[in-house]
């Protein structure tokens, strides 16, 4: 069944977009968690992305990630980072949406999040190798992937919390 595009639904998605963008921007202002890979962050905004996929559907989730990436690039002026962010976001979205559609609830949102984090790191590293012509970036991938799995667990737990405890008026549109 196709979801209705009501004003309330669009308003909630816009509020969630603002939340995800603020989380992304605040997290980008914090010092690097891994000095050898300063682009590595927990990715708290991804909890909002996974929440949108779970509650609003994969179509809205895709529009959401595109809007979040473009909005944050406009606000931060991070046009160079846009290639990294889009590559990571789109690849993570494809994996998370696919797993969610095919296997949820057989696998948890935690597993979906960890898989998305892993693919995000691989895609971002590949873009870095291509843009900077530095194959040595692949050497960071094992450490970054371990950190990404931990971040995926945090993001997945946060998403489960949001799905479980956000008021129904924010998630039900029937």
Automatic annotation (TrEMBL):
Protein name: Gx transporter family protein
The keyword Cytoplasm is annotated on this UniProt entry: no
Gene3D superfamilies in alphabetical order: 1.10.1760.20
Pfam families: Hpre_diP_synt_I
Source organism of this protein record: Candidatus Borkfalkia excrementavium
Keyword Metal-binding listed: no
Keywords: Membrane, Transmembrane, Transmembrane helix
Residue intervals passing through the bilayer: 38-58, 70-103, 109-131, 143-166
